Structures are given as C-alpha cells and as structure tokens.
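Protocol step 4 of 6: structure prediction from sequence.
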Amino acid sequence: MLTNFTALINKIDCDYGTDQQLKFIDEYNMSLEERISIYEKIRDNQEDILNQLESQINNSGYDFENRLSIWRRDVQLTLRCLAASVLFNDLDRLKNGFLIWHQTIVRANHVTNISSLTYETLKVVLENHLTSKEIKLVIPALNSAQSVLGF
C-alpha cells in the first residue's frame, strides 16, 4: 500500500489520477477491517502463537540446541513484520526490507531447516487465530517469505 501510494504520488504530482490508478485504494478499503483485525490478533496473541509454534516444532523432533531464545526473538520480529505487511498490503516492502535481511541471517547461521519448518508450521498455527477470510490475506505474505528465503 505504501509502495503503491508513493508510486501514485509520483504519477499524479501535476495531474489527476485515473480511475485505474486509484483502483488499489478501493480494493484496500474493502479489506481494511480484516487487515486491522489480523494485525490486532497477531499483536495481541503473539506469545500464544510463539508457544504453539515452539510446541509443534518440538513435537516434530527438532532440537533447538540452545538457540531457543534467538529463535523466539526472530519469530517475534517475523510476526511484527508480517502483521505490518498485511496491514498495509505492502508485500514489496516486506520482500525488499525484512526478508532480504532475514535471508542473509538464515544463510549465515546455517538455520535454513528450522526457518523452513517455522514458516510451514506458522501457517498452521495462524489458522487457529485467524478466520478463513483473514488467512487468505496472510497467505500471500507467508508464501512470499518462503519464496524469498528459498524454501
């Protein structure tokens, strides 16, 4: 959304925008209530989401090897960036900011396996906290994250 607004401002700096150029605003407004709800649910349930995610990953047999506190911190940051991306409907900002940085960290620390497992499990855990309509708005951000991170 922010990326779209910036592009729109540059295009219509000295002229009126066309209906086509303004269309994304109408589309965003139609989903704004759900986007705010998603943001609030992730924010308000972050600890529960983390606990469920950790439990499911532990049940899969993964051993955090004394990296649990770092993993939790990284997932908290991921949740905040994900929630903001969905709220503002701005996948480009998520991809070109947080995910590029996160990709570097994941590869440098050789934690691709746990990161991949975390994103897959996060989809399931979020389904416990969001409605089916809300999940449909979150899935593109999760899929983009998995694509950029290479899993």
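Step 5 (inspection) to follow. The mean pLDDT is 90.
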